[in-house]
Structure formats: structure tokens, C-alpha cells
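User: Hey, quick favor. My workstation is busy. Could you predict this chain's structure for me?
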Amino acid sequence: AVVSTQSGHYGRGAPGGNGDLYRALGQSKIIDDMLKKNIRSVHVYCVDNILVKIPDPLFIGCCLERESDCGAKVVSKAHPTEAVGVICICNGKVKVVEYSEISTETAHLTGDNGKLLFSQGNICNHYFTTSFLRKVIENHADDLAFHIAKKKIPTVDDEGKAFVPDKPNGIKMERFVFDVFEFADRFLALEVNRSEEFSPLKNGPGTGKCCPETCREDLSSLHQKWVKAAGGSLSGEGLCEVSPLVSSAGENLSRIVDGKSFTLPLYLDLTETGKTNGFHSKL
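Assistant: No problem, here it is.
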């Protein structure tokens, strides 16, 4: 982009999106190192999902069993215009159509069963074989499509004073990590439970939606569910968190919580005494 000021003009660049991952893997020779170490597959996910399972043996095992080149976890869209891309077949190829690229009319289409026709929301949680990644890097690194993202780009006013606009004032061209799906010979989509695997952080504190507060509440609700399912009981108000050193997905909690009562806020850790901070207390 070119920005004009009273003192002249200058160019402004920006990262090309997470789809530049493939170019980086090739240029850095990381993919070569993976293959030398006989790494067969990788799990790739976006960092803004607090409920992501790393790695999920069910998902990875399913992809291995089906001999998939790549796979993706999806959730049923909460409503037709939810801000998530949808996985679909376009001209015989698997693609993700971003929410900004699908018309409102298309987003509301339903099938004979009354359910949304395009309902499989992509949560950017993917599986790739390293051999597939090498194929993409060697043959398709420059074939990835660009997507238009409307952004609030810092700029200057007529007097040359810098400011950040309150509405999108420009576009950014991005490539996305899922743009390689169309090059897969065998693709798998696995639908998962939203309340157990998808709580994105997209907005700032206090916005009430996809923000730090909702992420904390969703994580706490899931972990409270784990404790209760393992035979524990909870009382009071506050957050609940289970350390990943204790359980990564609710497994093996019975030996710790079965038949016991706990008062929120609660933090289950390997340590048996002491406190962690202002709102967590250890078992």
C-alpha cells in the first residue's frame, strides 16, 4: 500500500496471512528436516482457540486410518452468518469459503432436511502428512489464492496527523493455511462438539463475544464438566481449571476427584497444597 503525507509518500507492507506457512517451511528447509527425522504427520491449529486439543488422538487416528493427506475439524455453524469459513466442494475440489466471501443468500440456503446447506464451520484445526506438505511446497506454493480482508489500517488525515480509523479503510491480501485442501487426494472432515473444542479469541476485553472473558468461562465450564463426570461435586462461584499435567481431555480424573467435594474457584494441579494466584486454589 502507498501512504501519502505532507512530507511525501512511503510504502507500507504487512504479513501475507498464515498461508505463507508453506513458503516458510520450504525456504527454511524445515520440511526437509521433518522428512529426515521420519516425521509422518503434523497437527496445525490457530492459537486463538482456547479449547483446542493438542494433539487429539481421535482426530489424528481417524486421519491415519483413512490414509488422509489432510484433515480438518469442523463445528456446526451457530447461525447462518456466523463469522467462520465453511468447508464445501467447489468444482470438484475441497475448499474453505470464508464468511466474507459467501453471500447472505447462499449462507441461508437449506437442504431438504431444513438444515443449513453450508453448515460445516472451519475452526482452523488441521492434520497434514509431511509428504503432502512437501508436494504443496514443491508444486503449489505459488498457486494459493489470495483472499481480501478488510482492515483498520493506521493512516494520516489531511493535515498529515497519524490516526487509527474506527472502521475498515483498506484491504489486505492474505493467503490462508487451509487453501491447500484442494490439492489433497484424500481429505477428511471431522465434526466436533463446539462446547468442547471451539472458543475463539477474536475481540478485546469487555466486548462480550469471542473475548478473554468468554474464553475463560468456556474453559471453566468444560473443566467443571470433567470434574463432575469423574465423580466430583462443585459448589460456590468462580472459575475452574484443570492443569494439562493432570488431564488433557478429562481422562484419569476419577482417581483425584471421585467422591470429593470442591469449592470454586478451583485449580487442579499436581501440587497438593498452596495457592497459585488471586482466583485459583490448588487441590
